[in-house]
């Protein structure tokens, strides 16, 4: 039998309680459902009062929800298409005190029904206490648990004059003056200098359910938060870029990418629900010497038929094999060198050097080299999209290191030189932050290279060019990088260089959201746990658990699909419950 927990926080484990409108409505809705118990007890005395800390809602309460929802058919919900939550509540409940709603800070009655409750309560308490309602409204706080009420007010937060009654005494007087027949709230309960307020269930259900039906999937979101100027919607939405996931092409999506993908997807949805214009970017690792190495592996060991049938795994196997050979080769050359042999020819024709030369052909736009690289990239993206679809994750743009032009990076190098940000050391271009940033911060930022002595641009150079190009393209108000904590120093260096180039306004818009690494995995050594394998294993485990109860199992229409969804959900929830 389906049951609903008394504490619906379990339904939203990753959302901050104080910031989730949907969470507050779930809490309020649960409170409202419990308020109907006395009505059912008159018909069925066996329905007893619940224990809020342990008990779950009975089928009778769930039936009430079904009845209430059925009262508002979709055709009826359309009647409220042009009715705000506040207006509908006024129609349902007499005696509301909703004076000067627009004057309250962070009040959105059109989308948040509970803001209407806070406005009403603020106005009632102003008449009782004599305290300005604009002081009372922000002081009304959401509680951490249902046993402490739905809203709580601490008397010291109202800036009471000195020399008057003590806070714990004055709240007793205020509670006694609270109206017995208030349309939305029960009489407050007093504990020390706190007053706890409980919603009345009937008006809440009558207004909340039509609001949910009317807004549908948009219920719980607030598009006003994303406006550049809430007083003038014509100025448009604020723009945010979220860069996340960012795997390396030709390698399977593994558990190490999962945290970035889940956190980034969550942040994108969160900002979208808050009304921001969100662009989700997957900045692929699709350029560098390793792709020269992979091309060599494909020329030596590749199989076109295997590539067509299972491109990602075939390329990964080649990558592991060629890295094993290269490691062994380096060890042999090192031993020969120690023995005093001349290894110049061996080093010049080593796999490492061959990969370097192949990548140089790619940067020189050699057609054959680029065609093979593009084939690897396109096949990888197709496979990644299938994995993202399983996780209900999507991207607006697949970008990558390869998309940054050599001309742009050359221009960045010149700017760094002209502005005396970088210097040349042994033919290489580097930035010594200790000479540019005073104190310990400059030393912590170290001395990163921006261009090698052979003229090859590095990862940092590409990121500088890419960041400035994105700002020119999107003119974003905020950009978030969801990248592992191993890149903390790299991102700090990037933001500081952007600032030193004269773009402090852009640097201030950027934020790094980091997270811990999944340890013990290496794609070179082949010790990676791939996400598809993880999802398959947890789906099998879920299916096995479901089969333990044959009665329930037989009621499930498509048990394999249900097990797959439950498995994916469990992986995502488990990963989000861990600390970053």
Automatic annotation (TrEMBL):
Keyword vocabulary terms for this entry: Aminoacyl-tRNA synthetase, ATP-binding, Ligase, Nucleotide-binding, Protein biosynthesis
InterPro entries documented for this protein: aa-tRNA-synth_I_CS, Arg-tRNA-ligase, Arg-tRNA-synth_N, Arg-tRNA-synth_N_sf, ArgRS_core, Rossmann-like_a/b/a_fold
Span of domain Arginyl tRNA synthetase N-terminal: 115-199
MF (Gene Ontology): arginine-tRNA ligase activity; ATP binding
Protein origin, superkingdom: Eukaryota
Gene Ontology BP terms: arginyl-tRNA aminoacylation; mitochondrial translation
SMART domains: Arg_tRNA_synt_N
GO CC, one annotated term: mitochondrion
Membership in a protein family: Belongs to the class-I aminoacyl-tRNA synthetase family.
Name of the protein in question: Arginyl-tRNA synthetase
Organism classification: Eukaryota, Fungi, Dikarya, Ascomycota, Pezizomycotina
